[in-house]
C-alpha cells in the first residue's frame, strides 16, 4: 500500500517555522516510505482565505524543499462535503442547535459552578419540530453538531504510542456554522477519505480532537488513517509561533538570506533525539530520520540558534554546491573566492561583501606605530605570480628583517590590507587581491 500524507494549511496568512514543522514531518515520512504528499488548502473560510497567501505557501514549501505530488483546494470540493453532511443527518449523527454564544457561555459557567464538566448538554436533541420552527421564526439559524458515541477511542500513535481518548468527556463538536459554512473537521475527514490519506502527522494539540475525528471517519463508513502527533515548536520562552504576529515567517527568513536547508533542519530536528546537525539534503536526512525520534518533551527553539546553525551550514557548502548561485551573482574568480571566504560567512549573500573587499576600495587601517613596518612590508612584496605559499614567504622575510612576530606581525598587515581585524586566512586572500592592490593598500 502506498502511503499518502497531507499538509492542510489555511491560506489566511504566511506560514511560520511552527507551521513548517508538520509540513516537513509529513515530507520526511513521504520520502522515507516512498509515499505521496498532498498539499491541501483548507480554504473553506472564504472571507479570510486569500490567494496571495496560498501562493506564498506554495513558494515557501518549494523553497524548503517540499515538492507536493498533488495540490487540492477544499473550496472546490463542496459537493462531497454536502453529501457527507446529508448522510450524517439521515443517520441521526448531525443535529441542529439554536443556542447563542452567550447562552452556551452561561451554561458552561453553571456547569463549572456545580462541579460538572462544561460540555454541551445536548438540549437541542429534545427540541420538537414545533420548537425548531418557532426558533427559526424568531430569526435564529442553527449550527450543527456531530453526536459522539461517548466511548473510549483507542489508537496507536506513530509518535506517542498507544493513546486513549474518552469522547464522553467532550462536547459534541460543531461541524457547520450558523451561516452554513463548514468548520475544519468535516471537510478534512471527507477529503482524507476520498484522497486515500493513510497517515495524518500533526501537532500534539490535536490529540484530543483525534478521538472525535475517528468517530466521524467511522460514521462515514471509513477506516481512520494512522495518526502521529509531534511536539509543538515554541520560542525560547515556551510561547508558540503565530501567523497573526508574523513570528519567524518562512517568507521573512528567506528574504533575510537564511539557507533553506538550515531552516528545514531546525524545524524538523528540534525536539527530537537526533541532533540538529548539517545534512547534505532532506533526502539524506530521510534515510535516518523517523517520526518515532520525536520527543515527548517540548521543542523549544531560540531564534538566535538559527544564526549559528545557518553559519555552520554555509561553512559546509562546497563550491560545487553553490556554483549556480555564485554564477547568478556574476562573481570573478568565483571558485577561488568561495574557497577563501566561505568559512567566514554567516549567510551566503555575505560573499559579496568579501568580493567588494577584494575587488573594490578599502579603508586601510594603519596605526602610527605601525607605519614604518607597513612601509617595509610594501617594499618586500614578492614578485608575481602568487599562490597560497606567497603569504608564508612574505611574512617569513618580514619576520627576519623587522623582528616582528605573532600578532604584532600579522594584525597590522590584516588591518592595512582588509580594513578588518578578522576574516579569511590571508594566505588564501592574498592571491585574490594581487600585488597591485596590496601595494596600494600598504601605501
Can you give a write-up of this model?
This protein has 4 domains: 1-71 and 187-316, HUPs (Rossmann fold), CATH 3.40.50; 80-176, Glutamyl-tRNA Synthetase, domain 3 (Alpha-Beta Complex); 319-359; 368-441, Orthogonal Bundle (Arc Repressor Mutant, subunit A). The radius of gyration is 31 Å and the shape is elongated. A hairpin with a 3-residue loop joins strand 6 and strand 7. The chain has helices at residues 17-33, 51-64, 78-90, 101-113, 129-137, 185-194, 207-219, 250-255, 260-269, 282-288, 303-315, 319-329, 334-341, 351-359, 371-379, 390-402, 407-418, 426-441; strands at 4-7, 36-41, 70-73, 94-97, 143-146, 152-157, 161-166, 174-176, 199-203, 226-230, 233-234, 299-300. It has 443 residues and is of the alpha/beta class. Helix 9 crosses helix 11 (303-315) and helix 17 crosses helix 18. It starts with a strand and ends with a helix. The model has no long low-confidence stretch (mean pLDDT 94).
Note the main attributes of this structure:
443 residues; alpha/beta; Rossmann fold; Glutamyl-tRNA Synthetase, domain 3; 4 domains; three-stranded parallel β-sheet; three-stranded antiparallel β-sheet; 12 strands; 12% strand; elongated; aminoacyl-trna synthetase; ATP-binding
Number of domains: 4
Specify the oligomeric state: single chain
Inertia-based shape: elongated
Number of helices: 18
Question: What percentage of the residues does DSSP assign to strands (E)?
Answer: 5-15%
Low-confidence stretches: none
